[in-house]
User: What shape does this take?
Amino acid sequence: MVMQLNCNGKFLDLSWPRVMGVLNVTPDSFYDGGRHNRLDLALQHAERMLSEGAAIIDVGGESTRPGAENISIGQELDRVIPVVECLTKKLDVIVSIDTSKAEVMQQAVIAGAGLINDVSALRGEGALQVAANSGVPVCLMHMQGQPQTMQNNPEYADVMTEVDQFLRQRISACENAGISRDQIILDPGFGFGKTLGHNMQLLQNLNKLSVQGLPVLVGLSRKSMLGALLAPDCPPPPEKRLYAGLAGAVIAAMRGARIIRTHDVEATVDALKIVAGIQATA
Assistant: This one.
């Protein structure tokens, strides 16, 4: 398995599970929308996540929650580029850019971002070539449909097979565009065009994605699937899903995930230290 990524000159060691801290500079993200959409607030939150053990800070300027509306390239650039510039100048941490827009990817890497995290798996116009030219690692996520409609009755004949086939196709597209295989991360896309049953099947069989020899990223933090498991008839709000998210993070790491994307860095780092300790004795 790929154990080290070159992220724009900073190296990410994946010999044990690492934490990606979420930094949404949006007004409408499902859990933390509006909390960090000023530069000073974004920097403060990033500093806190770094002190808690985050290896990556994932900056996003457009919500991808179910039903989220698209924003313009200009709006997204205005939200994320000052933050990426600030973080890369002031903090010794890998900054990733969470976007599907080629121009945002390009400008973010110029500003210092070391990883491209794309929920569309580089299918947007120009995204594949921009990512290849950037030289930084890419995270390819599976999503059925688009954020606006993805949770409107998603269907699969076999979710595991279809997710695996999609990711294999995107790996091939990346390699054909000039992206080295050892710079690719895979994300099965929990909650992106999937029912609770689909999500559970993916988590149960997550280790099957790791056999491709590429690191797997998992994002379960605070998601509605956790609320549905906790109380199907009256799911708790995102604020009440911390412990469920930690359980999901541990299960994912035990099944091979090497990057856990989370809103709750300190607690997740502690949980993954236990996983790493167990894995080291295996």
User: Anything to note?
Assistant: The mean pLDDT is 92. Residues 17-274 form a domain with the TIM Barrel fold (CATH 3.20.20.20).
